[in-house]
Amino acid sequence: MLLDRVNGPADLKAMSLAELRQLAAEIRRFLIEQLSVTGGHFGPNLGVVELTLALHRVFDSPRDKIIWDVGHQAYVHKIITGRKERFPTLRQFGGLAGFPKRSESPHDAFGTGHASTSISAALGMAVARDLKGESHHVVAVIGDGAMTGGMALEALNHAGHLRKRLIVVLNDNEMSIAENVGAMANYLAKLRTDRTYAKMKNEVEHLLKRIPSIGGKVARTLERAKDSVKYFWVPGMLFEELGFTYFGPVDGHDLAALTTMLDRVKECPDPVLLHVVTQKGKGYGRAERAPDKLHSVTPFNPETGKAEKSSSSLAPSYTDVFGNAIVELAEQDPRIVAITAAMPGGTGLTKFAQRFPDRFFDVGIAEQHAATLSAGLAASGMRPVFAVYSTFLQRAYDQVIHDICIQNLPVVFAVDRAGLVGADGETHQGAFDVAYLRTVPNMTIMMPKDENELRQMLYTALQLPGPVAVRYPRGAARGVPLDKEWHTIPIGSWEVIRQGLSPVAVVAMGPMVALAEEAADRLAEEGVDPMIINARFVKPLDGDFLLRLAGEGWALVTVEETALAGGLGSAVLEWLAGHGLHGVPVRCLGLPDQFIPHGGRGELLRAVGLTAERVADAVKDVLRAGRVPRAAVHTLEGSDLRLGQGRR
Ligand SMILES: Cc1ncc(C[n+]2csc(CCOP(=O)(O)OP(=O)(O)O)c2C)c(N)n1
Ligand SMILES: CC(=O)[C@@H](O)[C@H](O)COP(=O)(O)O
Ligand SMILES: [Mg+2]
């Protein structure tokens, strides 16, 4: 196998085109075999096999910098740059990351995971190169979906101004996760079919020149009439006007054409954009036919394409429960509209989009725009629900503050993937939304203990006059029955799940309520019987309840699957301190002040100390503390996390 001979990009240089074509076939087989076992981003990587080979053939990584936008399509890059043996550990704790990581390889020039960052980073590297008098190449590989992100356009604008030597490879496969949307997608479609324009140009010129005497003059005038002719004749005008020389479109599966074009753009002294047309899922029929469904896969049978039966519970996912609930609510309330930033499937809005196409908006990978679009909708009497992953909402923080909360507009944030997401690692953990939303005045934040409460929270949120975030985790809910009737949940009210006899209360949020119940079962064997509280509102806290607990001498253990700094525990400590209740023993369990890497969610929870055992220990610990002297320091410690000690 040629692939056995590839341990670095240098091994490609000596290969003939025929050998590169054979290598491409071998890499496709490798991807299908490996990802059918580990799962991962499937369609995107099948689509960039030839493009990656051509890039590493023409450029000299790691001296030349190649930045992969989003980075979910960097598996082939990792295979070529000496990491193929590690693929059985892909996205597992201590194993190969699913995105480029500078700490993983010198060939990973820049860490990615969130879309639309590559051109900015590449421009930064080009500026640094020139300031340092170096001469290497910098290449940003960005998809048509990521190109709909505002950051990408901001970077194009600046790059065209600076006119630095920079190569942008636009990987256009007509897909984001779902089909790509927006005027940019339409523009690219025109460029893709541009061959007709080019053909038309030759025919028109040929015709003009055949007209006796004036024809040639008209053709020359047309050629000279820069704008109209350039616009009409020269494809890629949008990019040309931004200061980029546009090349393409080129077939992204034709190794000869790709290497020729890359050799050509490599010589350009100014910014260039090479438009490459690829097929997402290329080489695996099911992925070619359903590139959205096979954007990422769980382990599957490569023969049948069927997902392996995972042991996951029969309970519905929180996402599906949300997706069904918002359709039911929208049936009753025509003011409800749903917004997504290029994640209709992931956020469960597919059904809503089919049922209410006029009230559904996929804005592309543009969370900032989605947030302020929602603000405009809310300011005009609609009830927008912006469904967005916790990690991606980070992109719209100023819009949340400036456009929504200052004006106290009734926007509902359906914050999905809140908590540890697992395999996608540091860039995707939903760790920070409580901290970053709790500090914003006018914001209400709630998290359900199960799917039935999620439905009622969504209903409650849509009754509120101001901004509200309903956050829920990735994956299966708890399989509880769903109330048929809608009812509102009193704002700021906590719920006693288990009364308990010992003077200690476990104040838990979301899936940590179930963990607290597990801990209580363990403690019962030792005669300890804590109260368990469902802290279903993080903002506002249930101050009356806290006052009663503190006044009656209870000790507290807070448990959350979010960053401790700024989370539920912080809120409780701030509240107690703010009310002069300094003697209450408190232990706070949650995510430590570290980025949580990829791995199974269970493994990661153990690594950060969010286990029933650790909750039980904390309860006994805080009971032992008893009424602590006023001078006591409340602990906010996470665990002494030694992440990355997993399988190498
Ligand atoms: C800021 C941000 N929002 C949403 C996502 C989720 N996401 C991951 S890949 C993807 C689509 C990317 O499309 P494209 O750039 O065309 O790459 P392709 O998958 O087609 O290769 C999206 C929306 C993300 N990674 N970052
Ligand atoms: C690369 C990217 O950002 C998305 O594909 C993300 O990995 C989807 O996450 P879920 O699998 O949780 O929908
Ligand atoms: Mg794409």
TrEMBL record:
Under Enzyme Commission nomenclature, its number is 2.2.1.7
The pathway is:
Metabolic intermediate biosynthesis; 1-deoxy-D-xylulose 5-phosphate biosynthesis; 1-deoxy-D-xylulose 5-phosphate from D-glyceraldehyde 3-phosphate and pyruvate: step 1/1
> Which ranges form a coiled coil?
none
Cofactor note as given: Binds 1 Mg(2+) ion per subunit.
Give the UniProt entry's GO cellular component terms.
cytosol
Stretches that traverse the bilayer: none
Q: SMART domains of this UniProt entry?
A: Transket_pyr
Kindly list the GO molecular function terms attached to this UniProt entry: 1-deoxy-D-xylulose-5-phosphate synthase activity; magnesium ion binding; thiamine pyrophosphate binding
User: Of which family is this protein a member?
Assistant: Belongs to the transketolase family. DXPS subfamily.
- Its recorded name reads 1-deoxy-D-xylulose-5-phosphate synthase
Organism the protein comes from: Kyrpidia spormannii
